[in-house]
Recover the amino acids of this structure.
DNA sequence: CATTTTTTGTACTGATCAGTCAACTATTTA
DNA sequence: TAAATAGTTGACTGATCAGTACAAAAAATG
């Protein structure tokens, strides 16, 4: 009861996510957030309490949308190598095409001091763990079907691939050298 | 001529480096920098001009000290695998032992928006390139001596290893799971 | 010793920060 | 329609920000 909200929570968190994604937590101002979300200060604080709580929501939303989409992509049909190649190629193209070089919000949050404690860190950990699990599942599958050599523990292989993947996204932050990124991809696939 | 400085530039930049390393660029305040360096605002600004210029100096200093030390470690005697294992083990131990989880300053700079443009980005790029080159040299050496299989381009192998290395440092930011980090190491070494 | 040059310490600046508050508006409920 | 409830608005707060101004202090130069 009472006056209804004039905005959709999802849309507002999506907008806030964009701000944090572009600027990081520290550099994002509440003014930026108001401008992008279209909300006044009062509404923003009434709905989310603080800049940091909104940040948590944004990271959560990132996991629910972008993170989930990536996991879904990995679950599509095709050989294991094809799917992993698809994922990395998609990231290379997306990162290089983005003039703001925002990269991966979860990775950004992991690196920024503000995201290394409390709820944000927990969200990031979970997102990392989800990817690890999906990759491990894929490697296990590939080993079972004979597509991949089965001489090494799937979890180890998955974790190494995941590391190469995050390293790739770090490199993509500062380099324009597509060939370097493609080398990372080829090497990571060859290491399976 | 004129009054001599009461401080050593190196010592001051070292102190500033610690601040930026712990807090990142945005969250580090000029007050933090004054407190840690022991300089007054006047001296700091007279000597370095701005917070951002001091940041540049700090990143440069990081490359000159920590970065160079790491490259030197890779050049020590021992088999290629031994040296690479040493490097990763050292990083795992160091990162997990650091309560502040500062990680690698160059990597932090690469992900923070402030470090993705201008001189700081150039410094980070160079540091990445230096490591790539040293790794490539090591792989080439290993392939020549027969320690490593020579069926893949050394540069590709080096780049993939480098990516896994940076990914490792990202993971170490949010996880305490030493086994997960060791898996990354073992997998990266197995992929050589 | 007086002048020049540079550093140092500190008080100060305007801007901007995250967050608050009270008046006002819109809706539900009785 | 009147009371209750919740959302919106924009001005406001004190704190803190990066950076500056300036006078005092310390050295070099003549």
């Amino acid at each position: 009861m009472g006056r209804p909200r004039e905005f959709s929570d999802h849309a507002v968190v999506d907008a806030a996510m964009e701000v944090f994604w572009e600027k990081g937590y520290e550099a994002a101002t509440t003014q930026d957030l108001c401008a992008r979300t279209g909300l006044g200060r009062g509404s923003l604080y009434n709905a989310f309490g603080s800049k940091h709580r909104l940040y948590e929501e944004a990271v959560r939303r990132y996991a629910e949308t972008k993170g989930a989409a990536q996991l879904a992509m990995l679950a599509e049909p095709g050989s294991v190598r094809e799917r992993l190649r698809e994922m990395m190629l998609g990231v290379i193209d997306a990162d290089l095409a983005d003039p703001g070089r925002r990269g991966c919000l979860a990775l950004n949050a992991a690196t920024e001091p503000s995201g290394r404690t409390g709820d944000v860190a927990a969200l990031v950990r979970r997102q990392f763990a989800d990817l690890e699990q999906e990759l491990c599942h894929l490697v296990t599958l590939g080993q079972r079907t004979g597509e991949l050599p089965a001489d090494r523990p799937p979890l180890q292989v998955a974790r190494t691939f995941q590391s190469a993947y995050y390293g790739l996204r770090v490199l993509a932050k500062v380099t324009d050298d597509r060939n370097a990124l493609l080398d990372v991809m080829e090497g990571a696939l060859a290491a399976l």
